[in-house]
Every structure is written in C-alpha cells, then in structure tokens.
Design a protein that fits this description.
5 strands; two-stranded antiparallel sheet; 3-stranded antiparallel sheet; single chain
C-alpha cells in the first residue's frame, strides 16, 4: 500500500540535513539538557467546570549548575481521552522547549493566554474569581504559577 506522498518522496530523493552554523544560532548552542535518572516535581489537579474529568499536570524540575531550579518536563493526564493526541504533543513540545539552553521561554505563556474556548471562558473553581479563557489557558496558568514558585518567573 502506497501512502500519500511516497511517490513524491521517491522522486525527490532522501532528505539531507545540514547543521545550522554557529553564527546563525542567536549566540547559543542548541544542545538539550540531558535528563538525569531522578527528578523532583509536583503534580497539580485542576477541575475545569466545562469537562467532567479532572486534569493532572506534573511538572518536573532540574537543579541547574547555579543552584536554581528549572522545569524540564511536563506531563498532562486525564480520563478524558478525546484530546489525548493533542495533549501528548503539547507536553512533548513544552518539555523540549524547556530543555533548551538560554533564557527561560516566557513567550509560551502568552500563547496559552491567547487560546480561547469557542464556548467561552470560565471562572476557575476556588480561585477567588480567576478566569481561564480555555482549558489550555488554565494549564498554562498552572505552569506559570509553578514557575513563579520555584523562582524561574
């Protein structure tokens, strides 16, 4: 069985990968942080009122050479499997981004805040009126709060 695009790939030949010259790397190297065997982290439970199931967010931190903590991986889990593939992608991308050297990628949190649910925003239960534009925004708020707690933000 031929997959869509297989014929085009055969005609084009193999993909060649070229390293990005150091001068084009914005003054930093892109070597990921190597994950140690054991990390400390926290798991947060959120219960958005727009879904039946709770969502669990685990953020694992690593001690950096200067003694500070930095989140390097995120896991999100729920009994609601309807969005599993997107949640899996989100956690992998966040974890990869958090492992990059250089300043902590704060721009990501703006994107969480700019994600809106088509059914409207909701007040986070037990939050003294904090509003989440979507479940993605709510997850981003948890990550921001965690980063503030460990001193990254």
């Amino acid at each position: 069985m031929t997959k869509v695009g297989d014929e085009q790939r055969k005609q084009e030949g193999p993909v060649e990968l070229h390293p990005v010259p150091e001068s084009e790397r914005w003054g930093m190297t892109f070597e990921s942080v190597h994950r140690p065997q054991r990390l400390q982290g926290k798991t947060y439970k959120i219960k958005p009122p727009i879904i039946e199931e709770a969502v669990y967010i685990t953020i694992n931190d690593m001690a950096m050479p200067d003694g500070s903590l930095r989140p390097i991986e995120v896991f999100i889990n729920s009994k609601n499997m309807a969005s599993f593939q997107w949640i899996s992608l989100l956690t992998r991308l966040l974890s990869a981004l958090f492992r990059q050297p250089g300043p902590f990628p704060t721009f990501v949190f703006e994107e969480f805040g700019n994600t809106f649910d088509p059914h409207g925003a909701y007040i986070i239960p037990g939050s003294n009126g904090r509003k989440a534009n979507s479940i993605a925004h709510h997850i981003g708020m948890v990550i921001v709060d965690h980063c503030k707690e460990i001193g990254v933000l």
